[in-house]
Amino acid sequence: MRARERARKPPRTRHDRCQTDRAQRHQSTTGGQALSTQVAAESAHPTGPGYEHVLVARDLVRRYGDLTAVDGVSFHIDPGETYGLLGPNGAGKTTTISIVAGLIPAHAGTVTVAGRPMGPGEVVGKRSIGLVPQDLAIYPELTARENLAFFGRLQGMRGKPLARRIDEVLDLIALSDRAKDATKEFSGGMKRRLNIGIGLLHAPTLLILDEPTVGVDPQSRNAILESVEALSGGGMAVLYTTHYMEEAERLCDRIAIIDSGRIQAEGTRSELITLTGGLDYIRLTGEGKIADAATALRELASVVQVVADRHALTLTVREAPTAVPGIVTTATATGMTLSEVEIVRPDLESVFLHLTGKALRD
Fold this sequence. Notes:
Helix content is 32%, strand content 27%.
């Protein structure tokens, strides 16, 4: 049996702004536990360059038959802020951003982007948005530069300004040296980076990134994350969806945990972790009578919650270091053969487990 303790590193600081001051200055609503103050229920939408928030989504609802995919989702994003929607596949992330981008209508609720209402028919409002979907939207027979030029012309860009902007974007996504190569020759990560470049080309006020690192190699993934970090540092608002906890911790100024179409909680990483109440997590990996071990462990005074899967038990506990001996004894006595015992200090996955009763990867 192998035992180890893991502590999460705090996310890398990218800006000199104070999250506490922002939470006091601005207001937001969530579909679940609110960690920021409530959005004022002003009746009129902001207009013109004086709008306070780049994006305001209020009470969004979207149904597919009997399934409510988005159920009362509300949030806002400020200039220069990266806002994360963190949740498992099927949580409602893609449906939410499809509403925000005006691709599909909401059955209830409103969206404004840069002070303008957003919906499928709102052409002017969509000019403020750069959307990078999960599926690649590039032409494989064209070079990277030709792809960018094509999509730039669709945005009304022409001549020297377009050429300069293409050079800037190629540099940002680290593809300047491959600008003249057909994209069918690119790796999956390079195609993803070009996809992001297309979304950036017209310098949108709001960039929406839907799971941009899915299926890419570690090197390309890091390059993508570095590009996103640079964007908010330059003042762009970013809406970032992911089911990777590490990405949310690294990139996002504020994070909304979304599950079953609802925002369960919203706040900075530090604010969200306070929701666990200072509890620790112990993961028992092994074989044998796992279900029996789960039943016995729930009776221990130090154990708050037990979540079982095929080969492991995840326990929410008080004072993990002192609780471990009794937990190991109880699990083995009921017929579970342990191969690993891991103590996990609170992180965003711990918060998700605490709020939903299931692991983020489920």
